Write the structure tokens for this entry.
Amino acid sequence: RMILYLLGYDSYCLNNESTIPNELLYNVKFVLYDNDYKAKTNVGQLYGNQIANKFGITNLCIPSEYKCKDISDFVWKHGIDKVREWLESVIVVDKQNEVEIINTNE
């Protein structure tokens, strides 16, 4: 959550990935759960997709090519500038602060 804040994105997190909320409390545009790319069952993406489908939002997934489970791994392995570059390639914010997701990668 702190990394997204440092990059200028408001965010909040749920207690755990298997929590499916009854409602979203904020103007949520996307889900960014773990990419358990090594696991037989990618739990982060399973629940991320369920939330996205339930609320009609986008599930973003860190591309497996980066070999990172979550956003903090991404920063640690590739640096904050690479994370910023990836986010800016998938999220566009217009002059009215409207968000459009243009590429979900996985």
Notes: Helices lie at 2-6, 43-55, 71-78, 80-90. The mean pLDDT is 85. Residues 80 and 92 are 18 Å apart (CA to CA).
